[in-house]
């Protein structure tokens, strides 16, 4: 019985040696001898860091600029001209305003590692971030007047009848808003005037000089064309008057900006081997 157990133990040890030797041979063949299988629990150690050169060129380039992204991608694929790789996809996510290009993704017949990439992620400009920050916000008179003065270079004030107001006039009118009361119970909402009361009527004076809309012009993302956004202003009366701001048709503007990004990338890669797709690709 003891002899049989010894024979089984010897067989198991021999099997482990054969398996380790086969694994070692396979790994050596696949990595040109730069990776080995260690005996302890058959751990694998990558020795690439000790080689004079890496086994293959790879890495990730990241940028916020469309022109730099296009230039890097088109110049990099030229280095693959002598190889069999001819599939260079670029996936565009218009909702997130970003894109990723793969240089060694390969294809179904010859899949690559997909670890040589270039990434584009557009950044909102300071002016556009400021504009988005006021959307749906309520301002006190002083806050609204100071905001207009801070961004005067981007703003045009429009009256309710469509007339353009000098911005200094609009700012002064906002600062001078006063509330009057009468003993009537009414409620009427207008673009830049709200009359309401439980026992009194509230109305805004100097209404003819108050802006109903703002035209805010800025470059929304670096590399995209300048765009004008319309902001609707509404007066909210109470103990202290407040002014609310809302960007008109913001979703439409966002769709147009996403479309512009797609067109710029497709145009930039038009004469190259890069193929563009709208969507994202998980290469795990």
Please provide a written account of the structure.
The strands form five sheets. The protein has a six-stranded antiparallel beta sheet with strand order 7-16-15-14-8-9. Strands 3-6-5-4-17 form a five-stranded mixed beta sheet, covered by helices on one side. It has a two-stranded antiparallel ribbon with strand order 1-2. The chain has helices spanning 2-31, 66-77, 126-134, 141-150, 167-175, 250-268, and strands spanning 35-37, 44-46, 59-63, 88-93, 98-102, 116-121, 138-140, 155-158, 164-165, 179-182, 187-190, 193-196, 201-204, 213-218, 227-236, 242-247, 274-278. Helices cover 31% and strands 28% of the residues. Helix 4 runs antiparallel to helix 5 (167-175). Residues 181-189 and 195-204 have low confidence and may be disordered. It starts with a helix and ends in a 6-residue tail after the last strand. Strand 8 (155-158) and strand 9 form a beta hairpin. The relative contact order is 0.14. The protein has 284 residues and is an alpha+beta fold. The protein has six helices and 17 strands.
SSE class: alpha+beta
Strand content: 25-35%
The largest β sheet comes out as: 6 strands, antiparallel
> What is the CA-based Rg, rounded?
33 Å
Shape call = elongated
Specify the number of helices.
6
State the total count of DSSP E strands: 17
The neighbouring-strand order within the major sheet is: 7-16-15-14-8-9
Provide mean pLDDT, rounded. Answer: 83
Distance between the termini: 51 Å
């Amino acid at each position: 019985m003891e002899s049989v157990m010894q024979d089984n133990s010897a067989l198991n040890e021999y099997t482990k040696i054969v398996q380790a030797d086969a694994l070692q041979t396979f790994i050596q063949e696949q990595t040109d001898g730069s990776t080995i299988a260690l005996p302890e629990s058959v751990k694998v150690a990558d020795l690439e860091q000790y080689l004079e050169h890496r086994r293959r060129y790879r890495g990730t380039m990241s940028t916020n600029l469309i022109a730099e992204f296009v230039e890097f991608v088109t110049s990099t694929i030229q280095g693959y001209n002598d190889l069999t790789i001819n599939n260079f996809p670029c996936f565009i996510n218009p909702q997130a305003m970003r894109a990723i290009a793969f240089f060694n993704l390969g294809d179904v017949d010859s899949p690559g590692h997909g670890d040589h990439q270039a990434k584009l992620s557009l950044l909102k400009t300071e002016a556009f971030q400021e504009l988005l920050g006021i959307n749906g916000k309520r301002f006190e008179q002083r806050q609204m007047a100071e905001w207009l003065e801070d961004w005067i270079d981007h703003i045009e004030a429009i009256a309710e009848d469509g007339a353009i107001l000098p911005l200094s006039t609009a700012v002064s009118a906002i600062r001078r808003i006063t509330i009057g009361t009468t003993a009537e119970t009414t409620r009427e909402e207008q673009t830049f005037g709200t009359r309401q009361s439980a026992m009194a009527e509230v109305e805004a004076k100097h209404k003819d000089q108050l802006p109903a809309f703002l035209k805010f012009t800025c470059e929304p993302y670096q590399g995209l064309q300048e765009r004008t956004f319309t902001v609707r202003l509404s007066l909210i009366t109470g103990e202290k008057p407040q002014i609310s701001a809302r960007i008109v048709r913001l979703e439409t503007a966002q769709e147009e900006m996403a479309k512009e990004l797609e067109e710029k990338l497709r145009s930039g890669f038009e004469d190259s081997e890069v193929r563009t797709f709208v969507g994202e690709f998980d290469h795990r």
